[in-house]
Structure formats: C-alpha cells, structure tokens
Design a protein that fits this description.
single chain; 425 residues; alpha/beta; Aminopeptidase; Immunoglobulin-like; 2 domains; eight-stranded mixed beta sheet; disordered N terminus; binds zinc ion
C-alpha cells in the first residue's frame, strides 16, 4: 500500500472511479475533517451518494465498506492482513491477537453469493488490519490500545456499520447485522451467538421466552415482532431458526433444532462487542447474530468457502423472508439457478457462474474419472477431470449460455449436469 498522500486522505474513496460529486467530496474531506464526516453520515447525506458497485475506504484504507441494497449487513473484523509499521503489535493482558482464518474471503464470497441468488447486494464492512494491530470487535481501548491510527480505524469501522444500519432502517425499517468470525474449538459446528450464554441456552423454552431473557437477546426486536409470531425460543432453535436452515443445508449449527444448546463444558462463543453494540438489545430495529464458523468443511479450502457462502446466503434470505418481510426487492432480473438438486451425487457451483466453477462429488474418486462439457448443440467443447474439483470455462472461449457436463460412471447411467455460463461484466 502506498504511503504517500494516503495518510492525508479522505474517509470515503470509491475504488473504481470518481463521480464529480464524489470528487468534490474527496477534496473536501481531508483527515482533519474526519470528525465531520460522521456527523454527515447519520443525516443520510452520504447514504444517497453511496453506490453498490463502488468500494469505500476509511482513513489509510484500513476499513473497507461495500454498500448494499438489502436489509442485510455483514461485518468481518478478524480477517485482516495489513500490518503497518505505524501501529505496534497489540500486547496487553488477556488480549487476543489470532486471526480468524479466511473470514475476510468468506465475507466477500457471501456478498457475491447473495447477489447471485437475488440480484441485490448485502452491505459488507471489512477490517483490513490484522487483528494484532486492531481488534474491531472490542471496545476502543482494548481494540486499539491508545494508538491514534488504530483508534481512527476502529471509529471508521463502526461508523460504516452505523451508516449501513441507517440506510437499512430508512429503506426497510428492519434488518439483520451478521458478525462473521471463525473459531478454533474442537467441535466442528457453527456457533450462532445471540448474547445468550451456553447455560442460558440450556434453559427450557419457557424460560428462554421470559422477558428478562428476551431483553438481553441480540434478536430482541425480532422476538417482539415477527411475521409468524414465533417465540424467542422458536427463533433461536425451532424448525425455522437460522440454525435449522443451516442444518438443513448440511452445516451443523448450535443453537438449532438438531442441537438446541451447547452442553455443559463445551466451548461456545455467545457474541461479542459488535453483536451487542449493533443489535437490537439496545432497542434498535436491527437484530444481530454472531456467526462463529468452524474450520473443517467451511473455511479450509476455496471450494469449502464457496459452498458454505452459498448455503449461508440461502439460509439468511430464507430467514429474512420467513420472519421479516413477505417480499424483498428485486434488484435485477437474473436467470434462476439451474443446478441439480442439493443431494445430487455431483454438484457444480456457482451455477450460473462465470469462468470458474467448483465441482463437489460424494462418490469414490474412481467413479468419475472424467467428464465432458457439451454446448447446447451437443458439440463436445471440453474434456475435464473431476479430481481437481475446479472447472475453468474462460469467458472469451466459452460464450454465455447453457452447457451440459456429462460424467461417466463405473456403472449405471452417466450423470448430466446443466451449467449456465453467465458473465455479466
Ligand atoms: Zn473472531
């Protein structure tokens, strides 16, 4: 990252281009004017300028904000890589400095997955600083330990989330904030944090629905007002809970209908600073859920990240539709997903996609030695091996349209998988 001039720069920097308004904005906003930008944000002046196809940065480009047009906000505070010399390594009693591996990548993939499914974007705020320089999921003292640059990054991070929340409330009244993390606990399951401890979750449903528990929940607002009048306990671990939707997609989650509470002695993260600050526990209209992702099968490879990102996107959209909104905006007409059913022996993802596809199969490696890609006229255009798990269809060579992958089997009929190449840019 270049240092020259950057330190003097601006809070909001479109990544791709400048509109004339934004250019004037940039000229106006120097670092000295930083205190004022966050006065502007709550007035919504800035929200009208932000574009979902642009990227915005805080001071020194430590914090990145990708605006959205859905009532869904993601944040990733522990997946950063930047280690500027001007911010010392955090060191204090009890300070945690370990990075949540691949959570920045996961957050970006979830945003793209939501777009593929809906044509709309969720908001995304990323702390690009390594956690040993800034822990944005702590109060400012523990987060930055008094370093001015780190403190500014902390303020930028939460101001961008505040701005996203304000945009959501203005347009939809309600919404969800998802704080994405990765845990190193031995039990490989997603830990969904609602600010309720493991021992609280072990209470009977009736106790979870008591007002003194609901008032301390990060989904307090949803519990008080949801479309189908589900109770707090049902929202946490019923058949229509987020945990249940994720379980149904093949990802173990606690709490959920299958795993209603961590057992006594289990490691479990119940939600941290951001879930508390940005959720409805303080009375706002935005509910919050911390998602602590296990590593195996979720964050351990690029295909794992892609498949999980899609499952999380689908689960959250289902959650929004079930509990919050009868209908969500249609931002762009896109072709529906054409992939085979989720329990198919061979899956291709993303589908529709552009250029790079991941293949996931559940049979033994010798069952599908190779596969052939055919275009709609029936002409074989590519032979490939399933072993690598990755299929490349460079857009210049493979025009948009429908293709078929046909995989030979040791016995029985070959499998036919439709694949839609749909490059938008
Ligand atoms: Zn974390």
């Amino acid at each position: 990252m270049s240092i020259d001039g950057r330190k003097e720069q601006i809070v909001l920097t479109p990544n791709n281009y400048w509109t004339s308004d934004m250019y004037q904005f940039k000229k106006f906003i120097t670092r000295k004017a930083l205190p004022f930008i966050f006065l502007l944000l709550p007035l919504g002046i800035n929200a009208q300028t932000l574009r979902v196809d642009s990227t915005y940065f805080g001071a020194n480009e430590y914090i990145e904000y990708l605006p959205g047009n859905l009532p869904l906000i993601f944040a990733a505070s522990h997946g950063g890589y930047l280690t500027p010399a001007s911010i010392p390594v955090r060191s204090c009693a009890g300070c945690v400095t370990v990075t949540d591996a691949n959570t920045q990548e996961l957050a970006r993939m979830v945003r793209e997955a939501v777009f593929r499914r809906t044509g709309c974007y969720p908001h995304l705020i990323i702390n690009r600083l390594r956690r040993n320089r800034l822990d944005a999921n702590r109060d400012i003292w523990e987060a930055a330990l008094g370093n001015g640059e780190a403190e500014q990054a902390w303020r930028d991070y939460h101001a961008f989330i505040d701005s996203a929340k304000q945009t959501v409330v203005k347009k939809f009244n309600r919404g969800i904030f998802i704080d994405l993390h990765g845990h190193g606990h031995s039990i490989q399951r997603l830990e969904l944090g609602y600010l309720l401890s493991g021992s609280t979750l072990r209470l009977a449903d009736g106790s979870l629905n008591a007002p003194n528990v609901v008032m301390n929940s990060s989904i307090r607002k949803l519990s008080e007002d949801n479309r189908k009048k589900f109770t707090h306990a049902e929202l946490l671990r019923g058949a229509f809970s987020l945990g249940a939707f994720l379980q149904k997609s093949g990802y173990a989650a606690v709490p959920s209908d299958a795993d209603p509470a961590p057992r006594s002695g289990d490691d479990y993260f119940s939600g941290g600073y951001s879930t508390d600050r940005h959720g409805s526990v303080e009375g706002s209209n935005i509910d919050a859920i911390q998602i602590e992702c296990n590593f195996q099968g979720v964050r351990d490879s690029e295909p794992s990240l892609y498949f999980f990102a899609d499952a999380l996107a689908a689960s959250l959209m289902e959650y929004l539709k079930t509990h919050y909104f009868e209908g969500l905006p249609s931002c762009q007409t896109i072709t529906p997903v054409v992939s085979a059913p989720e329990d198919a022996a061979l899956q291709i993802f993303p589908n529709p996609g552009c250029g790079t596809y991941f293949m996931k199969h559940q049979l033994q490696s010798n069952e599908y030695a190779d596969a052939t890609i055919f275009d709609v006229s029936g002409k074989a255009v590519l032979k490939t091996s399933l072993a690598s798990g990755v299929l490349e269809l460079p857009p210049g060579q493979f025009p948009n349209g429908l293709y078929w992958m046909i995989a030979r089997r040791m016995s029985g009929q070959p499998l036919r998988i439709p694949l839609l190449q749909q490059c938008m840019y």
